[in-house]
Structure formats: structure tokens, C-alpha cells
Input
Amino acid sequence: MLLTIATTYSPATELGFLLHKHPDRCQSFSLTFGQAHVFYPEAQPERCMAALLLDVDPVKLVRGKGARLEQYVSDRPYVASSFLSVAIAQVFSTALSGRCKDRPELAQTPIPLVANISVLPCRGGESFLRLLFEPLGYTVSDQSYPLDEEFPDWGQSQYFTVQLQHTLPLGDLLSHLYVLIPVLDDDKHYWVNDDEIEKLLRHGEGWLTQHPARSQITRRYLKRQHRLTREALAQLAEEDNPDPDSAEESHAEEEAAVEKPISLNQQRMNAVIAALKQSNAKRVIDLGCGQGNLLKILLQDSFFEKITGVDVSHRSLEIAQERLDRLRLTRNQWERLQLIQSALTYQDKRFQGYDAATVIEVIEHLDLPRLGAFERVLFEFTHPKIIVVTTPNIEYNVKFEKLPAGKLRHKDHRFEWTRLEFQTWANQVAEKFAYAVEFQSVGMEDSEVGSPTQMAVFSS
Ligand code: SAH
Output
């Protein structure tokens, strides 16, 4: 059984860092059901391909079970199945979780990837294969095989050679394969219990709730066990449709959908992280942290020593906590994190003791008459050395195809500013509270309307 993953990201050999496997070496790993080998058939700066070869031992599979002869003769050693998922989770565990010590930003960056699966059993046929991968943005190519070339009347088999092509972070590709391969195979080699729900939700984070085939995926992933399927679907529905108090969540998704084509959130996070590192800010408080987009990145980067998230919404903090829980962090990593429920328009001693405060896409959620109170809380009482503020540039809204003319990007936005309005505000605040301020644009810059996000970095 062979899985290859190739990239043309430049330099392509960075794939070795992302997978934590050196392109010059061939490595082997012993698994309970056989051997996994990782090697690179190709490792050039222009194109690099990693291969995971799984050598499933058919005798080991049935040993001690009083097996009958036919159990020794199965397709398991030759096809992609739950054995491959286990191998991915063991051999590429760090990459699967979206982390990379040496290249933390690259692990989160969409890169061009092509995965080839030599033989994939697709119970449900080609249409089901496409139903699973195409909504996630993949270009799917496949080749099917006759059951027996000698007897064309028997028709086609359910085995396919599959190629999946997409530009996305490597961890996302691995998560999709981890979940969807056993779903296509519609079988699992081990007993499925409650732990399996947690695995499904963890690896399905960020894509499964919105997937049009989420019920089929869940049912098959949990080996059609009714109770487990019901529980998992209930949890997914809850993630998808939170309690009415937190309309914030669905709004956040709407905003993300508007901005998605340019993956603006990622570019924003990269710009913020770069500004923090440039100022050597190791202790960071994220004010209005929401569901923890920035916290997630900070926590996975050992540069940051103390990380605190603040939000007024209890529900958002709960979701942030759940999302961070799924990162499988070590105790040391966890000890750097704190979540605080508080409002940014009231003084709070707990905001003190940080090198930097970040306020990412938050000010536009404050009522304009309350902005003055927020300014005093942050710039006067808290007074960190560095403050990073981002907010939408309203001039750019005409470029978002999905956004009706004249509408703001989010139902809860009280205002959105032009570049001149934002810079006027920031310059006034800087002068009043003795900070220097510099501006940066984030996202693709348009010569007329500027970039989608505007960022100010204040330093005192
Ligand atoms: N910074 C996050 C979330 C942005 S959404 C990100 O970039 O993903 C804005 C967040 O600000 C929401 O989570 C909202 O609950 C929070 N917020 C709005 N007004 C607030 C206030 N007065 N005090 C604290 N948080 C507030």
C-alpha cells in the first residue's frame, strides 16, 4: 500500500521539515500490524515527493485468532484502509496535528499538494469519492479497475487509484485522509468505542461540521454504531448551531466566508506574529480573543512564553478552550496559557504584566461612544510596550464578491473605517498616550482601495 504526497512549494524540500522526515533518509517504523517505510522518490527544490509505504503483514492480522484459510487471503495488505490512518497518526503525528517546530508558519500555510493513493477501496463508487473530497476543494482524478480482465462481464471493481490535488496546509490534507480513507473503505480493523468520537471531532475540526456528507462520514467512521453516531452528530450540530446567545459564532463564520477566497485570516495572523517577534514580545495578551485563532498559533510557537486570551463572551472562550484542548499540548505548553472573561471597556488589573497586547478585528465590535473607555483601559492603565490593532478597511469591501454593496463584513460590526479614518484615530491615540505608531496593510493590496485589513503597531 503506497501513499505519496508531493509539493511544488518553493523550496519544495521544506516538505521534509513539515513531515519531520529528512528527504535524504529512508526510515522504517514498526507498527502492530506490520512496517511503515518513509522515503522520498524525489527531493528537488522545484518538486519534492514523500512516500509512505505500508507493509501490512497478513499473518500478523489473524495470528492467534484460530483463523481460517480465507482470512489469510484478504485485500487488507494492498489497499488504503484504517491501517493507513493509524500509520499516518503514528508516523506523521506532528504534521497531522498541524504543528512544526522548525517551520511553525509554514505548517499553517496553504501550499500546493498532490496526494496519490495507489489502491483505495471506494464503497459507494466514484461518485461517493467525489462527494467526500470535492466539497473540501480538491481536484479529484481517479482510475478504476475491472474485477477481472478475463471476465469483463463482471464489471468494475470498487478499487480505485486516486489523485487528490489542492492548495492547503499539510495538516489539513493529512486530517482529511485520516478521516476519509476508512470512510471510503467502510471498515475498520479495530473495535470502535467512545474514543472514536473524540478522534473524529479532533481530526474533523474546521471542516466536518460544514461538510455536505457529514452524516454519512460520521456513520461510516463510527462503523455504523447507532449510539456513537447519534452522539457524534449531536456534538457536531452543537458546534454548527450554538446556543442563541452566541450568534457571534455564526457571524464569525459568515465573515470568514466573505473573506475566504484570499485566506485573509491566515495572512492577518502571520502579520501579527511577525510584528510581535520583531518587537521581541514574548508575553502576549490577546484582547477579544474570540475562539482562539491567534492563541492557537501562539501556543504552538515556543517563542511565546506567556499567553492570555480575554473575551467578554463566555461561549467564545469555551469554544477556544475546546479547540485548544484538541491540540494535544504538553503540560509545559499549557502552563503558558490563561483565558479570562472580561470586558475591554473596564479597567482590569489582570491585563497587566505583558510585553504586548493584540486587538485583532475587535475595535469595530465596540460602540463608537465606548471607544474612548477602551482607549484609556488599554493605552493608559494597561500600557504594554507594544499594541497591535487590526480592523477591516471598508474601502476594500467592493472587492468581496459575496458581500452586497454597502454592507459591513459582519452583522455585529458597529463601524468599519477607511484607511484615513483608521490612521486619524490611531495617530490621535498615539499622541494622547505617548506611543509611536506604524501602519501596515494586510492581504492583497489593490492600487485603488488598498488592502482588506489594516494594522497599526503602537510602541511606547
Ligand atoms: N480576535 C479574534 C476574534 C475577533 S471577533 C479573531 O481575530 O479571530 C471580536 C471578538 O471581540 C468577539 O469574540 C467578541 O466577543 C469580542 N468582544 C467584543 N466586544 C468586546 C468587549 N467589550 N470586551 C471584550 N471582548 C469583546
Notes: The first helix runs from residue 15 to 19. The chain has two domains: 2-190, 249-459. The first strand starts at residue 2 and ends at 7.
